[in-house]
Amino acid sequence: MPRGRPRKNPDTAPAPKKTTKVSKAKAASATLGFEQQMFLAADKLRKNLEPSDYKHVALGLIFLRYISTAFEARHAKLMLDDPAAAEDPDEYLAENIFWVPETARWSHLRDNARSSGIGKMIDDAMLAIEKANPEQLKGVLPKDYGRPALDSVMLGELIDLISDIGMGDTDDRARDVLGRVYEYFLGGFAGAEGKRGGEFYTPSSVVRTLVSMLEPYKGRVYDPCCGSGGMFVQSERFVETHGGKLGDIAIYGQESNHTTWRLARMNLAVRGIGADIRWNNEGSFLRDELKDLRFDYILANPPFNVSDWWNASLEEDPRWQYGKPPAGNANYAWLQHILWHLAPDGTAGVVLANGSMSSNQNSEGEIRRRMVEADVVDCMVALPGQLFYSTQIPACLWFLTRTKKQKGWRDRRGEILFIDARKLGKLVDRTRRELTDEDVARIADTYHAWRGEKDAGTYEDSPGFCKSATLDEVEQHGFVLTPGRYVGAEEAEEDSVPFTERFAALEKTLKEQFAQGEALNTKIAASLKLIVQKESA
């Protein structure tokens, strides 16, 4: 096993200076469980609203609170330094802060939280913010708070609750905790929605694994089915944690669900992350918005085993370099779409159903063979079960690359790393498992050592966990890429009891069992004899 270099855990912290009508100071701290407490409190307020509906209500208000906190902090500073500049939108744009009109500021909504017309006031605030920031926010924010189905008392209580987030801390800390709460709420709503929730959210531990393995320090990052943008948030967090800064990576994405696209835009805005996220309802296959761009890193969690993706216009598509994918399953269409968009030195991490590693239906086995022979498969990771909200289907990670001779790393041509992580993770409730930080580090450090990265330690095969296999070995297994076929069984721990003692104990036990068997046979024979005598009488 590698002696992995230490990894920093990208944990952030919270909070603002403003006080609210409802003063719950303990809610301001970023202690463990704070986000969960906030989510449970907010969830109680939704009453009969479905989670899929309520998430837009809650997340929209958290977003509004976030951008208002950033605006009001900058506004207060400008009022001290240059009052005339405090009303100039350009002064905020220069600091990557949204301009918030006076009636849309959180302080105004907070002061009117108990008004019967608070729903319309929120809608007006959202419209005013979009109008003031059309390039970034046009068509992004929810604007249906005034509908009869939303109880104004509930909205007022939710505003009071959100007002307490980060209360009493510095402005930077407040914005940070608001970002944490927004991210936690995304996961909470994904869990509440079950299968539908998985359409917009990839579990955080899976995203951290992808990001930790790919290490997107600088360059272009792309997700062709970006959901709510979690891959991008974790990538930016990785950069900052390792000494970089926002802007070291350029973010691109595409999403076919308009509602999910709006969540992604808000999620990134809450983190102050600029990105080129495209939406069209045709999706990345039929309308590849970024077809001429190539990317240094691609991270994706496509929907598993999509069966209704094919269109006749895709028949001769140049993306199918390794074979035309079957019309009944999009798994190998996603893999080839991602390979098509990789830069010459680019790497990709893709979440797919386990069946993708071994399926021979239609043309899938042949496409996989060609990909292996072309040496574009770098690493395969089998994940534990129960990681996903949306499905109980076991999943795996594919790591793809255009070249295995990247600068600064060892030449890995003709090799594939297999990692079996199925035994890792811990249960967080009865139905769901998460990879721990230690699990993520073990997987990522193994990959980095195998790639030959500087200071990553020396790679060694570990029976039951990891194996570096040659392409000849993969061919012998029929080009099946399931890690369990390669890593073998875990080595049993050496028994500390000497063999002679163990043998003597086993011999004694065996003699005792023989004696018991003989006694039982004698008893059975006697019983049979008695039965015969009774029958003869």
Detailed description of the structure:
The protein has 537 residues and is an alpha/beta fold. The chain folds into two domains: 34-193, Ferritin, CATH 1.20.1260.30; 204-485, Vaccinia Virus protein VP39 (Rossmann fold, 3-Layer(aba) Sandwich). The chain is 43% helix and 12% strand. The protein has 18 helices and eleven strands. The protein has helices spanning 34-45, 51-81, 89-93, 106-111, 118-132, 134-137, 152-163, 171-193, 204-214, 230-241, 258-270, 283-286, 331-340, 364-373, 437-451, 471-476, 484-487, 499-536; strands at residues 219-223, 249-255, 276-279, 295-300, 342-353, 377-382, 395-401, 415-420, 426-427, 433-434, 466-470. It has a nine-stranded mixed β-sheet. Helix 1 crosses helix 8, helix 2 (51-81) runs antiparallel to helix 8 and helix 9 (204-214) crosses helix 10. It is globular, with a radius of gyration of 29 Å. It catalyses: a 2'-deoxyadenosine in DNA + S-adenosyl-L-methionine = an N(6)-methyl-2'-deoxyadenosine in DNA + S-adenosyl-L-homocysteine + H(+). Its EC number is 2.1.1.72.
Short description:
This protein is an alpha/beta fold and 537 residues long. It has helices at 34-45, 51-81, 89-93, 106-111, 118-132, 134-137, 152-163, 171-193, 204-214, 230-241, 258-270, 283-286, 331-340, 364-373, 437-451, 471-476, 484-487, 499-536, and strands at residues 219-223, 249-255, 276-279, 295-300, 342-353, 377-382, 395-401, 415-420, 426-427, 433-434, 466-470. It comes from Acetobacter orientalis.
